[in-house]
Automatic annotation (TrEMBL), chain B:
4Fe-4S ferredoxin-type domain residues: 139-169, 182-211
Pfam families per record: Fer2_4 (PF13510), Fer4_Nqo3 (PF22117), Molybdop_Fe4S4 (PF04879), NADH-G_4Fe-4S_3 (PF10588)
Residue ranges annotated for the 4Fe-4S His(Cys)3-ligated-type domain, each copy included: 80-119
Origin superkingdom: Bacteria
The entry's keywords: 2Fe-2S, 4Fe-4S, Iron, Iron-sulfur, Metal-binding, Oxidoreductase, Repeat
Segments traversing the membrane: none
Protein's UniProt name: Ferredoxin
Organism, scientific name: Desulfocucumis palustris
Keyword Zinc part of the UniProt annotation: no
Domain 2Fe-2S ferredoxin-type: 2-80
Role description: Ferredoxins are iron-sulfur proteins that transfer electrons in a wide variety of metabolic reactions.
One GO MF term: 4 iron, 4 sulfur cluster binding
SMART domains: Molybdop_Fe4S4, NADH-G_4Fe-4S_3
Length: 351, 309, 527
């Protein structure tokens, strides 16, 4: 494939023809802030946060939608660029609630990151401010459209990742708002609560209800794992705070990228459910009583042993589990064959 | 020593006589928020965020100054307690800038932590606000007293080193303020920029100038080091972002640990990837100086040169 | 799956049989949607007008249980019109002539009688599948949960081989597994007739290899019992003791009444689970297990990708990971088993299993690996059967249509089919306790067609009793055109709607999978 060589901040870089200036900068590890750009979605080019100065061009160009060409000379943090970014941030903040104090995205919010980076403390002009009702009439997602910066990523994620097009821009001008058809709530729409819009939202406008009520972004430890539900095998990060799983966030999974379904993203609550079994139980006179591990294991060993010696191994049978790990299934098969001495092992749902 | 047994949130706990309810609760695994209390400083009981409900007492006492007694029955998160804490937070926030967006303390601020914990989104009422100028006339410490919650920790920690005691409460009522004598900026006071006060400030009122704009707390990593410039053995944190060490901060000081600017600068020189030029006050003005001068090695070096020469 | 999930989006033609992909495998559903947006043709064969059927260019609303007729019919058209991949058939397969002869009688007209699909539509779909550059077939329980489930799978494979849509990217025969680690449970030998990697227990050298690795003289050679046979055995008193780990057959298996009866007859039952499931309630001893968040391990997904599960928190209460419990029980029974960690168990698995031989925890840190992965430097195998089938030549296995074991009659005039819902999973033990999913989707209903509802005088939301020869449940009716006349549908997620009290335990003769998709029922309005 044809390649082009350009200069960014005084450094040369060669990229395949058709790459954007943003991609070329990334190759040099030069960071350019973006709000509406997402590598998995179509380019929108509306936020203008990613502007750069290109020698010979009359205006600042948006790097996410400008093709890199041979010999191009680019500056990503020139005074004019910084000035432009500050103005964009001031405009956004002019109509943004100053809620970082308790906003659950604080610490993982692009608006906040860039305001800090460019030292923009608040909106330069106090404009009219939205007073939208916070939407939380469903158990999964909270929408606070006062914080929405209209980057349109959720609109594109819903259409292009989820294939649903539940949300879209509605109204015009200052009243422009991202909403489901007829401006109902998500609960009243076709939304399947995959949360893939939440995963791409750069600010606190869309939040996971459970996770965000429980922890601040800097308090959680993320542990990459594989979904315990269907056989697709999506990867995600368990968010852990104080030894408890408080939520799930997307990672870049082998199979699923950042996409998850409602079960994977919001179905973690069973882990700490009060019904979890916490002690071995032994049935006495038809009722379960708590027992120590030693008692329980010994009883199991004794009873299985007695059946084996009394009636032979074929009087025993084992059901393994499509929900347990490979290692556990292997050990259970080994146990059945080597310890019990039978091949009577199966699992319920070979489906 | 004698022990007392009390009940906290239904859990029985036995502690040494003389223990505060706050410490007893910690022992039993219950968190009680605090602003003005600091384990290494004497009790204070001013901010009242640590109030608890104790059976038989009419008011909600501050747990950091209330001694645990035999048979006491304590609730640390009863509705009355939560209500009181919310009100305190609302009062503080009524006179607090909404600056978390870019505040250096964002992510490591008790006011923010507790506001989140108790779901206090902002001031319950719009109060009168301070508008103090942000003080950054010295090269080391930025003071933004608009964010000060008057917990007094800086005052007490500074006073722990006898010859310092630079800052204290000044004025009264709404105008109460932490200030150096005559309300001069730190740069004009006897302040030695040891950073003890920065280390204990629970909010973003005191921050390090040399770290300002360098990174947000959740991007930074801290690694403790012990200073070896003298034998006090003061504790500092190396602050790094990504692969780079970008600064040095004082750790919460104990009474015998003076902490000093020289030590901090020395560690900066030793560990930072790009140590900034040290600045010292000469004739009332801060000027950039050489490292040997900043670290007080000038004389030694001269001598060495002489011997060698 | 013969092909990776990501291949689905690249297929030019997708034939989805008996899978409501967007509901039961939402993320694979995204690949289907992506393909459709990119201009691929989607054909869905399903008695219900499911969400994915709504997306399809062609919805083949077949009669329940008539999949073989459909598949054979497609093959018949492709052969008679000379559209099959002659080169592939000649080079890579055998027994084509037998197959040709067998499908001859499945003319489009005959197939129309069996399936209800108009002959022309069948021809059109057959031409589309055969003519596509890359075509993939997706299927799930809609195919396997029939008395002829295994034959259905053969019929699918026959069709793919006929057109050479296998052994190359964006094509293949792709069963979508319903549970996170069904693939792994099978791979690991949690089956009566095979050890890990499908090494048969009947083979002397296989048994010798395992026996020596496990420090034993010999291992039992006789294949064991399947779930259904175990339960049979238990109710006849031949099976005296059972040890059940992480399964809930009382709800997941057909004819629940019979399952409970069988388990109650046991002398001794141990159940190891994270909740006191309906099955655990029948146990003599219940052992509390750690959840997936509390242990290390691996799952193998439906595309054979082995991926890490990582411990995020300590087990709740005194719960312990299943692997530790198994070790403890084995040790107490006089066979010391002890492992440092699941990583060590994986080393043992790799040493005994050719298809997992190259898989290790350090490698999995870089991402999942699709087996077969025979050596430590083998990259894994995203697409199976490239250039050669595992047995050499691909064998056509002709199969015949057989009607479902239980058909509607005077007394039980409707067909009941069961399946999954988007917001829930399996027997609901997990999804009913999330604080979110059950809040949003808290009660189950019976889908029924408007004309059937009218016959019974049912209105939306009416409580109904659904009964089969084996049992009955009560729930509310939802009148919808998702189901055609004569068919009713509900899920098996809700313990209070224990639908498997009704389902037919008649099983496929080979795979022993029960016919959960078709049984005859009647519906009556209660109160
Ligand atoms: S969305 Fe970002 S900038 Fe806005 S309040 Fe939340 S954290 Fe602050
Ligand atoms: S949750 Fe999913 S379906 Fe609902 S609006 Fe977001 S992306 Fe669309
Ligand atoms: S809700 Fe979030 S993702 Fe959607 S437009 Fe607003 S800021 Fe962007
Ligand atoms: S996130 Fe959804 S689609 Fe992905 S594995 Fe889990 S249940 Fe399946
Ligand atoms: S400056 Fe900080 S430590 Fe000092 S009183 Fe104010 S809040 Fe407390
Ligand atoms: S001091 Fe704390 S509450 Fe105040 S602006 Fe800074 S981070 Fe926010
Ligand atoms: S990121 Fe380029 S315009 Fe928004």
């Amino acid at each position: 494939m044809a390649e082009v060589t350009l200069t960014i901040n005084g450094r040369q870089v060669t990229v395949p023809q058709g790459s954007t200036v943003l991609e070329a900068a990334k190759k040099l590890d030069i960071f350019i802030p973006t709000l509406c750009y997402d590598p998995e979605l179509t380019i929108d080019g509306s936020c203008r946060m990613c502007v750069v100065e290109i020698k010979g061009a009359r205006a600042l160009m948006i790097s996410c939608a400008t093709a890199a060409t041979g010999g191009m000379v680019v500056e990503t943090e020139s005074p004019a660029v910084v000035e432009a970014r500050k103005t964009i941030l001031e405009l956004l903040l002019a109509n943004h609630p100053m809620d970082c104090l308790t906003c659950a995205r604080s610490g993982d919010c692009r608006l906040q990151d860039y305001a800090y980076r460019y030292g923009v403390k608040e909106g330069g002009f106090k404009g009219a401010v939205h007073q939208y009702q916070i939407e939380d009439d469903n158990p999964f997602i909270v929408r606070d459209m006062n914080k929405c910066i209209l980057c349109g990523k959720c609109v594109r994620a819903c259409a292009q990742i989820q294939g649903k097009s539940v949300v879209d821009y509605s109204y015009r001008g200052f009243n422009t708002k991202v909403a489901p058809a007829m401006d109902t709530t998500l609960a009243g729409s076709d939304c399947v609560f995959c949360g893939n819009c939440v995963a791409v939202c750069p600010v606190g406008a869309l939040q996971e209800k459970g996770l965000r009520a429980k922890a601040r972004t800097w308090e959680v430890e993320k542990v990459r794992t594989t979904c315990p539900y269907c056989g697709t095998g999506c990867n995600f990060d368990l968010n852990v705070k104080d030894g408890k799983v408080v939520g799930v966030t997307s990672c870049d999974g082998d199979v699923n990228g950042r996409a998850l379904c409602v079960k994977g993203r919001f179905g973690y609550g069973f882990i700490h459910h009060p019904d979890r079994l916490k002690k071995p139980l032994i049935k006495k006179d038809g009722r379960f009583v708590e027992a120590s591990w030693e008692q329980a294991i010994n009883l199991v060993a004794e009873k299985l042993g007695a059946i084996k010696s009394g009636f032979g191994p074929e009087a025993l049978a084992v059901l393994s589990s499509a929900r347990c790990t490979n290692e556990e299934n292997y050990l259970f098969s080994k146990f059945t064959r080597a310890v019990l001495g039978t091949n009577n092992i199966d699992h319920c749902a070979r489906l | 020593m004698a022990n007392v047994t009390l009940t906290i949130n239904g859990v029985k706990v036995t502690v040494q006589k003389g223990t505060t309810v706050l410490d007893a609760a910690a022992e039993a695994g219950f968190f009680i928020p605090t602003f003005c209390h600091a384990p290494e400083l004497t009790g204070f009981g001013a901010c009242r965020i640590c109030v608890v409900e104790i059976q038989g007492m009419r008011n909600l006492p501050a747990s950091c100054v209330t001694e645990a007694t035999e048979g006491m029955v304590v609730q640390t998160e009863s509705p009355a307690v939560v209500e009181a804490r919310k009100t305190i937070l609302e009062l503080i926030l009524a006179n607090h800038p909404q600056d978390c967006l870019t505040c250096e303390k964002n992510g490591d601020c008790r006011l923010q932590d507790y506001a989140f914990r108790y779901g206090v989104k902002g001031p319950g009422f719009e109060g009168q606000r301070h508008s103090y100028a942000i003080e950054d006339s010295n090269p080391y410490i930025i003071r933004d007293l608009n964010k000060c919650i008057l917990c007094g920790r800086c005052v007490r920690t500074c006073a722990q080193v006898k010859e310092r005691a630079v800052v204290d409460y000044a004025y009264r009522g709404f105008n109460t303020k932490i200030a150096a004598p005559m309300d001069v900026p730190l740069g004009e006071s006897d302040c030695v920029y040891c950073g003890r006060c920065v280390a204990v400030c629970p909010v973003g009122a005191l921050t390090y100038k040399r770290l300002s704009g360098q990174g947000r707390v959740w991007e930074l990593e801290k690694k403790p080091v012990t200073c070896t410039f003298c034998d006090s053995g003061c504790q500092f944190d190396l602050i790094s972002k990504g692969q780079k060490v970008i600064g040095v901060a004082a750790r919460a000081p104990g009474p015998g640990r003076p902490l000093c600017l020289k030590g901090r600068l020395g560690l900066e020189l030793m560990y930072c990837d790009q140590p900034g030029t040290p600045q010292l006050k000469k004739d009332g003005e801060f000027v950039g100086v050489t490292w040997p001068e900043a670290l007080g090695l000038q004389g030694v070096l001269e001598k060495l040169k002489k011997i060698e020469g | 799956m013969t092909n990776p999930i990501k291949d689905v989006a690249g297929a030019d033609f997708i034939l989805a049989i008996g899978t409501n992909t967007t509901e039961s495998h939402p993320i694979i559903g995204l690949q289907v949607k992506k393909a459709v947006r990119g201009g691929s043709t989607l054909v869905v064969a399903d008695p219900r007008k499911t969400e994915v059927a709504e997306l399809a260019h062609t919805h083949l609303q077949i009669k329940s249980g008539s999949d073989i007729a459909l598949l054979n019919g497609l093959a018949g058209v492709i052969i008679s019109e000379g559209l099959y991949n002659k080169e592939f058939v000649k080079e890579r397969t055998e027994d084509f002539e037998v197959f040709r002869a067998a499908v001859e009688k499945y003319t489009p007209e005959y197939v129309e009688e069996l399936t209800g699909i108009p002959a022309d539509k069948l021809r059109e779909v057959a031409r589309g599948y055969a003519g596509a550059e890359n075509a993939t077939i997706l299927y799930t329980m809609g195919i396997t949960q029939h008395i002829c489930g295994t034959h259905n799978v053969f019929a699918v494979a026959n069709l793919a081989m006929l057109c050479g849509h296998i052994g190359k990217p964006y094509s293949g025969v792709n069963p979508l597994r319903g549970q996170n680690n069904v693939q792994g449970a099978c791979d690991m030998g949690a089956l009566p007739a095979v050890l890990t990697g499908y090494q048969g227990v009947g083979l002397d050298d296989v048994r010798a290899k395992f026996a020596s690795a496990w420090g034993l003289e010999s291992l039992p050679a006789k294949p064991g019992l399947t779930v259904g046979e175990m339960l049979e055995g238990a109710s006849r008193g031949q099976i005296k003791g059972m040890y059940i780990m992480g399964e809930n057959p009382v709800l997941s298996d057909p004819d629940a009444g019979h399952v409970i009866h069988a388990l109650e007859k046991l002398d001794f039952l141990v159940v190891q689970d994270i909740f006191l499931s309906e099955t655990a309630q029948l146990a003599d001893v219940v052992l509390p297990a750690a959840s997936f968040a509390e242990k290390d391990g691996t799952f193998s997904n439906t595309e054979r990708r082995v991926q890490r599960v990582r411990k995020a928190i300590e087990p709740v209460g005194e719960a312990r990971p299943d692997w530790r419990i198994i070790c403890d029980v084995a040790t107490a029974m006089g066979y010391p088993m002890s492992y440092e960690s699941p990583a060590e168990i994986m080393r043992e698995i790799a040493s005994l299993t050719p298809s997992y031989a190259g898989i290790s925890y350090p490698r999995l840190e870089q991402g999942g690996i699709q087996w077969p992965c025979p050596t430590a430097d083998h990259p894994g195998t995203p697409v199976l059967h490239v250039g050669k089938f595992s047995r050499g030549l691909g064998k056509f296995s002709p199969v015949e249509y057989v009607p479902p074991a239980e058909l509607p009659d005077q007394q039980y005039p409707l067909v009941l089919s069961t399946g999954r819902r988007h917001f829930h999973y399996h027997t609901g033990t997990m999804t009913m306790r999330t604080g979110a999913l059950e809040v949003h989707y808290g009660t189950e209903y019976l889908e029924i067609n408007a004309s059937d509802a009218a016959k019974m005088g049912l209105a939306e939301g009416d409580r109904v009793r659904v009964s089969s020869r084996r049992g009955s449940v009560e729930l509310s009716a939802r009148i919808t055109d998702v189901v055609p006349e004569g068919l009713v549908f509900t899920s098996f997620h809700f313990p209070e709607v224990a639908i498997n009290k009704l389902t037919n335990p008649a099983r496929d003769g080979i795979s022993k999978i029960p016919e959960l998709k078709v049984c005859a029922v009647k519906v009556e309005k209660t109160a």
